[in-house]
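## Example pair
The file below holds two records. Each record gives the amino-acid sequence first, followed by its structure token line.
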Amino acid sequence: MNKTTQPTPAWAVAVAALPTEWFRAARWFQAKAAAVRSIRLVDILDLSSLLPPGSRRLSIALVEVAAGDGSPELYQLPLCLEPDGGMGPGPSFAVGAGWTVREALEEPALHAVMIRLMSEGRTLAGGRGTFHFESFPSSLWRQVHPLAQNSTNSLMLVKADVVCKFIRRLPAGQSPELEMNRIFAAAGTFQNLAPLEGALSYRDAGGREYTLVITRRYVENQGDLWHGTLSFLSHWLHLLAETGPETSTEPAREDALNYLDRVRRLAKVLAMMHRTLSAEGLGAAFAPEPITPADLAHWSGAMAAGAVAVLDKLAAREPGSNPATRDVPEELPEMRRQILAAFSRLTGLRPDGWIKCRVHGDFHLGQILLVGDDCFVMDFEGEPLKAAAQRVAKYSPLKDVAGLLRSFHYAMCAALYDWKERHPLPREAFNALECRLAEWNRSVEQIFRETYFAEMGWIENAGLSEFLAVLKLEKAVYELDYEINNRPAWLPIPSSGIRACLKEILQT
């Protein structure tokens, strides 16, 4: 019997053949730092019968993965099962005799059949639940290639006019992004985002709903503002290196003015988004509410608990070889004391006239598309490490402001550290460059804050300034947790961010 006539393995067998190392290496897998205990197939949508005749099989698999000492989490895996010798992209893994399994994201046939199902508004039965395809334009997609993977989900460009987001880690409930986009479409007052096209959802036997795929119209763009900022700073660092960091060299005037114009426009776009989300008449789930002292006390406690968990995780790590983190074990007790003291200051603020509403929740430079002279907002899923209930909780709009201000600082540090790796510098020269970029960061933050508060019609008094400073610290602690799990080599960046935030708070 040759390998092409071997019996087709069951999908459960194919899922069992996926090595734990493959999960831990995937950007979308959250528990990279933990050992995978178990992998279990929960349900499968086998699309093979809808494909042209052939031996290859395609499916959408829902897989429960348990890692470390945490609870199992549900993930979506588009899979391709084919005879040995297939030429598909990406790594493949042997399944029994004569078959291999691999990820199917770059298979045009997968997207073509999904388009047909969406256009028909079909609902299909899986093994234990149902898969619902929402209405979608009927044109077929045939050109498929991956976009730059800068998030915890997987983005695919299809036929150069539609982007499909496959949500990989699946919390129960409708995706916040799908929910938010429907609100924006209904309100009609915020249009700085790509139009929503359709979605695929799953409902299990217990009635719980999960959003699997969100599709939206592709918008011609010049990339995201994170990479735009890194390019701008890299060019400036080249100029400084040529003249010496102690000189008064500034970025090219046109580049600098264009960047600051971008910052002002972004402040206006964010304010427009927040005015839409805080408007009346959006329904109970979106209706704005006053912030109370009880809210501040709750947030203060949650921040403190989260910080303790992150710092305990950091304390359990080996110091490593990076000079910037060698002293962290000795610094941790004092850092912990200062962070908890800073968070406790929330309870002393008076939130008179402050409001909470639905917010983006994970707002940073990588979530902003440069579209001509404008800025479009992407990805309303919230922070990847937060629980589903926290992603949809109402919060101060300043949470998004804090996230963006931290992102400016993060980009500054990332550009500087990248430059240092490629161009070794004496400590004095590095410090001089750091001071120059820190001045730039303070200027950008000031311009953004002034524009945003003016657009919101708010006066940035001492209370709001301190609230914003504490929210920036909360974001820096979150960044520390993210890098522990994903990029330990980047730990010096959130560590320096925490020190900068503490300095700001202690001076207020």
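Second record, same layout:
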Amino acid sequence: MTNEKKIEWILRVGVAGEFLGHGVFAILGKADWIKWTEQLAGFDTATATTFMLVVGLVDVALAILVLTKPIRPILLWMAFWGFWTALVRPLVGLPVWDFVERFANWAAPLALYYFYKSKK
């Protein structure tokens, strides 16, 4: 396996792991995330819980997709979503370092996007 292929797969596994982990937490209805959705979007608890379920299912599907057939525009969405979910932390009152700590959530899908873009 070439070094280029190794880098590609390291990024793919990293991105998939991040989205799988977040997806499962969302499907399970992580209490903080439901509270933040209520706070930021103004949803009631039932709507926030349903929203989290849908987000979780999409995240799991994206994790599978990045392992089976990565699609560049989807990787851009993943970078945006990773950035947004990291940014939510300071928006709900957590320290900015909670955002900084999650830079890889958006940087890894963005790096994979540019990896594929450079090959085209």
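Notes on the second record: The chain has a mean pLDDT of 97. The radius of gyration is 15 Å.
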